[in-house]
């Protein structure tokens, strides 16, 4: 009895301790059970290869939902380079500044959405405008059909004016197709919307609008004799996609009479260099920059594997292997930009790998027969003229991987993330390297001279009010690099991108200024000779938004005195003739 009382006394004194022990054991068992359950879920076998389909077909290798809606949200960042219509907006674009008169505008654009540069498996991909719902496309097409003198029943009209573009079609050949290197109907839509924005911003301040003539019952097919063809000057490279993009944009910018009066001039260079073109030093800089990118690629085995898998799935013809990640990215954009499902492939017999050295003669024939991509075609043209030694046709040690078609499976969202994130990272690093800016200075020298010459015409009372340069991604890469304009996309230039130089005169005095707007964003302060106190900040609108105006003499001084200083030279010939470029570090 005494022992029982003693045990009860001890139990009463340590009751709290026993409660803590029991609670700890219960929590431990609960956590162990949760981890065991989670481990069972994660260890479920997929039953596929590393780059094959997932077990359920709906869950990607990253565990995310691969339904169309979730995939669209996941790839929204990558689709920025596709320039969806919602991305084409009026933002900081000027036109009317209080106390200032707009003297003229020089606009550089990249063409709109195009087909891939390589043959891809594009069955089922719609590169057109869904359901014919774009009113601007319908209006443009109706106008061309009604005003053209070509044979009835044809599916696209032709440019009938004498010159280098005689016989060029004004519309893509098919409404839904993704022709190799050609503008698509989606690209036409993009430029029509850009032109509509430019119409809202510039048409009235520049006096580009004409009063309709009530005595003319229908639209004439010949230019009006009273129109001044010098008001709007158009330059484009001799590619259908840039030519069609220019005319589509100008259709919504100008009245019909002025559009019909247009004369389109040819630029023989994608850099719009106008005589200041040949520059071996620029080729060497670019070659070294590409070699740095190749080293980064070789360090990433995961990217090489994904590049091989996606390229082998999407690309139709890869006899020399897959060596360029941006070629695969371009093919992949055919899928991403048109909201198509990620492709799959079935098992095929392995073919005997061929030597990795490329057959330049065959590829040159392909380039001549089609309007290839801006970068690829430019390099091919340079290879023909022996001006640029950095053509991809020259064996320069690029990593090459033979596409493996023995596996079957699908391209998954995780594969897209791996490739696109690497491409974005490499684009950012390249754009931040000194070689990128130096090469841009050399490549865009002729174009900047041309732009400045038209600025001087505008401020001297010349009739020219609007100058358009319809070019390629490399056109804008060179120009933005030379001016020091940096974007969050690195060296990537989205379809239908625009770079505007707005020229203003003060109402209070005779000083002339300009501002630079890239895709609707004021980037004047990014330019070295316009930053900080070198520019004038003025009120842009009634809501108090500001605009930066840079004196025109700043760009003139930069062109004539400081342009070649980073290259330790005083003129274009001296800068291009340097044997060795300035030394610099890797990425």
Automatic annotation (TrEMBL):
Transmembrane parts of this sequence: 16-38
Query: Could you name the Gene Ontology cellular component terms for this entry?
Result: cytoplasm; Golgi apparatus
What InterPro entries does its record include? Acid_Pase_AS (IPR033379), His_Pase_clade-2 (IPR000560), His_PPase_superfam (IPR029033), Histidine_acid_phosphatase (IPR050645)
User: What are the GO MF terms of this UniProt record?
Assistant: acid phosphatase activity; lysophosphatidic acid phosphatase activity; phosphatase activity
Which keywords does the record carry?
A: Hydrolase, Membrane, Transmembrane, Transmembrane helix
The organism sits in which domain of life? Eukaryota
Any one GO BP annotation for this protein: chondroitin sulfate proteoglycan biosynthetic process
SUPFAM superfamilies from the entry? Phosphoglycerate mutase-like
What is the catalytic activity of this protein?
3-O-[beta-D-GlcA-(1->3)-beta-D-Gal-(1->3)-beta-D-Gal-(1->4)-beta-D-2-O-P-Xyl]-L-seryl-[protein] + H2O = 3-O-(beta-D-GlcA-(1->3)-beta-D-Gal-(1->3)-beta-D-Gal-(1->4)-beta-D-Xyl)-L-seryl-[protein] + phosphate; a phosphate monoester + H2O = an alcohol + phosphate
PANTHER family, alphabetized? 2-PHOSPHOXYLOSE PHOSPHATASE 1 (PTHR11567:SF110), ACID PHOSPHATASE-RELATED (PTHR11567)
Q: Member of which family?
A: Belongs to the histidine acid phosphatase family.
Name of the featured protein: 2-phosphoxylose phosphatase 1
Lineage per the UniProt record: Eukaryota, Metazoa, Ecdysozoa, Arthropoda, Hexapoda
């Amino acid at each position: 009895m005494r022992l029982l009382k003693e045990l009860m006394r001890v139990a009463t004194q340590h009751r709290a301790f026993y409660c803590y022990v029991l609670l700890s054991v219960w929590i431990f068992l609960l956590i162990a059970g949760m981890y065991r359950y989670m481990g069972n879920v994660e260890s479920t076998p997929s039953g596929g290869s590393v780059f094959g389909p997932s077990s359920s077909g709906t869950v990607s290798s990253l565990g995310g939902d691969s339904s169309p809606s979730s995939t669209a949200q996941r790839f929204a960042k990558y689709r920025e380079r596709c320039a969806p219509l919602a991305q084409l907006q009026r933002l900081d674009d000027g036109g009317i500044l209080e106390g200032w008169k707009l003297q003229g505008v020089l606009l550089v654009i990249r063409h709109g959405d195009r087909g891939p540069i390589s043959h891809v498996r594009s069955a089922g991909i719609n590169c057109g405008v869904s359901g014919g719902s774009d009113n601007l496309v319908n209006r443009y097409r109706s106008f061309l059909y009604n005003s053209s003198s070509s044979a009835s029943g044809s599916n696209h009209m032709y440019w009938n004016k004498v010159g280098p573009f005689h016989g060029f079609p004004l519309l893509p050949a098919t409404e839904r197709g993704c022709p190799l290197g050609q503008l698509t109907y989606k690209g036409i839509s993009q430029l029509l919307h850009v032109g509509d924005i430019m119409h809202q911003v510039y048409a009235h301040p520049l006096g580009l609008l004409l009063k309709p003539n009530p005595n003319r019952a229908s639209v004439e097919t010949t230019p009006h004799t009273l129109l001044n063809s010098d008001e709007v000057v158009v330059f484009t490279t001799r590619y259908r996609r840039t030519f069609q993009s220019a005319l589509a944009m100008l259709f919504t910018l100008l009245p019909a009479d002025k559009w019909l009066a247009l004369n389109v001039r040819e630029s023989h260079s994608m850099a719009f260099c106008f005589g200041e073109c040949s520059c071996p030093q620029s080729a060497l800089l670019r070659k070294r920059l590409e070699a740095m990118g190749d080293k980064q690629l070789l360090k990433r085995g995961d990217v090489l594997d994904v590049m091989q898998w996606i390229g082998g799935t999407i690309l139709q013809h890869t006899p020399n292997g897959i060596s360029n990640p941006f070629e695969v990215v371009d093919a992949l954009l055919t899928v991403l930009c048109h909201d198509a499902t990620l492709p799959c492939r079935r098992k095929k017999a392995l073919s005997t790998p061929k030597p990795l050295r490329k057959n330049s003669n065959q590829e040159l024939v392909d380039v001549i027969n089609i309007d290839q991509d801006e970068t690829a075609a430019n390099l091919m043209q340079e290879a023909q003229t022996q001006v640029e030694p950095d053509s991809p046709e020259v064996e320069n040690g690029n990593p090459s991987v033979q596409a493996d078609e023995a596996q079957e499976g699908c391209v998954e969202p995780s594969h897209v993330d791996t490739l696109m994130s690497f491409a974005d990272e490499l684009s950012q690093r390249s754009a931040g390297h000194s070689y990128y800016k130096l090469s841009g200075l050399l490549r865009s020298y002729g174009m900047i001279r041309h732009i400045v010459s038209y600025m001087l015409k505008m401020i001297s009372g010349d009739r020219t009010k609007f100058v358009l340069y319809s070019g390629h991604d490399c056109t804008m890469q060179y120009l933005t690099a030379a001016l020091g304009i940096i974007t969050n996309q690195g060296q990537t230039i989205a379809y239908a991108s625009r770079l505007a130089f707005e020229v203003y005169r003060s109402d209070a005095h005779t000083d002339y200024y300009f501002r630079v707007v890239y895709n609707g964003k004021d980037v004047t302060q990014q330019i070295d000779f316009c930053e900080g106190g070198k520019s004038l900040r003025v009120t842009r609108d009634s809501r108090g938004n500001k605009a930066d105006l840079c004196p025109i003499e700043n760009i003139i001084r930069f062109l004539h005195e400081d342009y070649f200083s980073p290259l330790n030279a005083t003129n274009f010939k001296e800068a291009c003739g340097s044997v060795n470029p300035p030394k610099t570090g890797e990425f």
